[in-house]
Each structure stands twice: as C-alpha cells, then as structure tokens.
C-alpha cells in the first residue's frame, strides 16, 4: 500500500477531521457529479441498514456537508478515485448524524495531530505565491514595471493605461503612420491581463511574453506568444486574428482558447473553449471545435488533435493549479514558474510518477508541496529558492 493509500485509509477511519484533512475531502465533494455522489450515499445507507431518507433529506445532507466544509477549501487535493465510496461511508458512519432531517457534521481541530507537517517545518522560510507582476516594453525601447506603476496613462501614451492591475489599450482616433509594437513580459511568479486595441482580452501566465501592435492596421491581426496565455478574441470577420509561436500558428475567428507553448515543454497545446480555431504548422493544419485540443511537437513538427480538457486548461486563469495524471516533472515545472523557484532531483527518483490534484494558486509553497507529498508519494526539502525532490 502506498503512502497516499495509507493516509487516506487512516483519514476516513476518523470521526473528526483537521483543516488539512478537510481539504482532501472537500475536493471530492465539489468535483464528484451530484448523481454519482447521491448513488454512493444511498449505497452507504443500505450497507449500514440505515433507513433511506427521502430526496429532500438526501439533498440536505450533501448541501450541509458542503456548507460545513466550505471554510476549509483554501487548498484542494484529489485523492485516489477508487476511494470515493469510502468517503461517503466515512461521512455517514463517522461524522454525519441524521435525526429528523437535520445533519450534524463534526469538523473540530484536533489538538494532538502528530502527523509531520511540511508547512510547520518551513514556517520561518516559506515562499509566497506569485501575483500580478509584469514588465511592459514600449516601441521606443522604454520599459515600465507595471506592478510598481500607478493606475492611469502609461509613460504619457494616450491610448495605453493601467487599471485595476490590467493593461488596457484603446483604438487610436487616427491611424498610426507605421506599426508600433509593445511587448508584455511576465517573470516567474507573475501573471497579467491585457486588453488589446481591438477589444481582445489576453491573460498571460507566468514566465511568458506577448508581442502585439499598439493598433491593428491592415487586413490581419497578429500577435506573438512565448509561454502560456488565454485569449478571448474580439470578432472581426474582415480581420482574422493570428497567434504565432515557434513553428506554429493559430488562426482565429472570434473565439476563446488557451495556448501553452513554453520552450521547456516537449509539446505545445491549444485548447478551445468556444468558437473555432485552425492550428497550422509546416503545411499541416487541424481545425478545432469546442472541447478539442491540438498538440504540436516542436522537435518533430508533429501536429495532432484530440479531445481536450478545457476546464483544466484554463484553471490557472481562475486561480487554480490543476493536474490530471501529469508527470511529476511537468508539475514541478509549473510550480517553478509560479513560485519562482528552481527544482533539482536526487538519485532516489525512479520511474515515472504521475500526479492528479488541484490547489489554489494563493497557497504558500510549503502547503503546495505538502499536497504533493501526500498525493505523489515523494518528499521535498527546500533550501532558499531551490526544491530538492526525493523518494
């Protein structure tokens, strides 16, 4: 039995759960479909010879579990899928008392919790999460650190302003004599939002850059991306929108999609949430429908299409770090970008470890690593801004 299995089995045998334990359980309750959860709930009642309550009471049970656990949802983790039935059974047998349709759910903090906590071990040297940080490079070469700039016009540019930690461009009243380009750059530990002059909205993830014209002249709109960004493109049938990357181009006609194209990743992915896009590379192309994803491999120029995970692809924009059977190395690259840390592996690492889980991006590094320790059966030590991974 692996460490996560041992932890989960011990957890579900308890009658009371600590804050950290609640975070495990809450993610199941939030991400299990209602019909599936209700079916497991009924099965647990039958196994314990408990009279099955009517539909209204069943809904009340689920709603009250959510309501009681809601304050503890700062971090979310996905335990093993096969244990969902255990969760419902434990909730009924250990912490849920039904009497006259009223639910009582015990969530008291345990004072004698002796399980080692990485968060406590690092409390004097913890690393805060990233935030809204970026640098804007203007066409004249001047650089503006946006997280240090006040709201209002940027560098006396009449059509560029900073507002509520976002960068907003407006269409110039007169067409500019020549194309002028700006570049928005986010560092590791940074993210930023920009609204282009045509109304297109772009969310730029950490360690990324976007080059774009101050105003879109001519018959096309084209921007260049390095890293990851989510786009909501303003529709304009007469001016197609293009996003270009190293060896790949995405053609857009008014839509919303996510592109992940970091130089240190083996593959570039484009995931469509609405509308339609055409992904083009080396004479090959695929057209995506909502819910589909293209994968481009820069080393071989291979381009393919498959069903995607739109919710997971854009989770970062919504404040969640999300993993679904991803390799541990990919997970650590994600954390490295967001927390601005380096990652090294010692010689105890063997085989491919895959991780499924989710956490809020506003957690400190210690809590994020604690979650991974429990889900991936690995161990972390942190020295300054370097994480060492071992088994």
Automatic annotation (TrEMBL):
UniProt key word Membrane: yes
Domain Protein FecR C-terminal positions: 321-389
Alphabetized InterPro entries for the sequence: FecR, FecR_C, Ferrdict_sens_TM
Annotated protein name in UniProt: FecR domain-containing protein
Spans traversing the lipid bilayer: 86-107
KW Cytoplasm (keyword) present: no
Domain FecR protein, residue spans: 183-278
Keyword terms: Membrane, Transmembrane, Transmembrane helix
